[in-house]
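Researcher: Re-running this chain for the archive, since the previous output was lost when a drive failed. Same request as before.
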Amino acid sequence: MNHLIALTTFCLLLSIPAMAQDAPTPSPETLKQTENDLKQTEALKEKLTEETQALQKDLNKTTQNLLSLADRIGENEKNLTRIEGQIARQQAERAEIETRLNTDRGALSALIMALKRMDDVPRDVLMLKPGAPLETAQSALLLETILPRLYERANSLKTDLARLDELIKNLARDKQNAEKTALQLAEEQKKMTALLSDREKAYRRTAGDLKTQTQTARRLASEAQTLKDLIGRIEQNRQKQENLSRQNASLSRLKTAPPPKMGAGRLPVSGTIKVGFEQTDDIGAQSQGLTLDARPGALVVSPLGGVVRYTGEFMNYGPMVIIEHQKDYHSLIAGLGKIDTVVGQSVLAGEPVGRLGNSGFPSLYYELRHNGQPVNPGRILKY
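Model: Regenerated structure tokens:
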């Protein structure tokens, strides 16, 4: 900070108009001190530039690692959900087959044994049995009718037994795959936690006014009456800050980085759409966004590149993040169990911003707004 004051003072001295002709000539000592101050100022500027570049390089590296890891986590979450679905369906089919087998096995076994005994009796002996020939003929006709159906049931029993054996093998394989995928996911989540911590530290070192930005965002939220009102206030504050930054550019430690490109849009979480845009939601209202069911603790990412403008709770949305994008778009991501980003942070499409809760059956709510109005996310996102 002292170096910045010295730099500011020197710049102000340079802006003072030239002295009158009769002003006293500076002494050699004064000129030498001024020259030394100038050298120190230039050295300070070079040092700050190097530090800034190094910090930004570390932050960029961490961001790329986060993006790569987030993709792997999302893929593993999809795979684990798919495998668990397969296991559930196979277990239901196995229970159905076992119930059917338990019902049919006894009756079929008795009938097959009776038929076997009849087949073992010689036809000559069978004809010598007491009874009218008509009764014997009727019995033969009855057997001709029943036997095909019995053989069909027996074949069905054989098929069920083969399918049951296949299901048992598939379940064992899928459960092993699920355990393996779950372990990979847990390991990746540990790495993600460490990377998120590194990202936050790097960002805090490059953004000295982080606390002020957060406090301002919270104040705007407390004053807003609706989500549209909040987004409008955030946009007005952003424009105000940009004007101040341009006015004080000569005293700024870091150059204002341009907002990231929106990139390839994606859903903010790996899951299924429970309620679509303009569909009827759980309370009977027309949804202004998407409700997505996902795994407990699922990773939540930025659907598009942008700048985080708000983090925290707002009205009945619960913990949420608002991200500003180019072309007057904003993303609202609500229902988070944990927020892993801060106000003012630039995020790329697919970069982590939070996680869902770890209990129950969590859902994420997402809105895309253009000029404050909700629009169909399918306009930009791919899903």
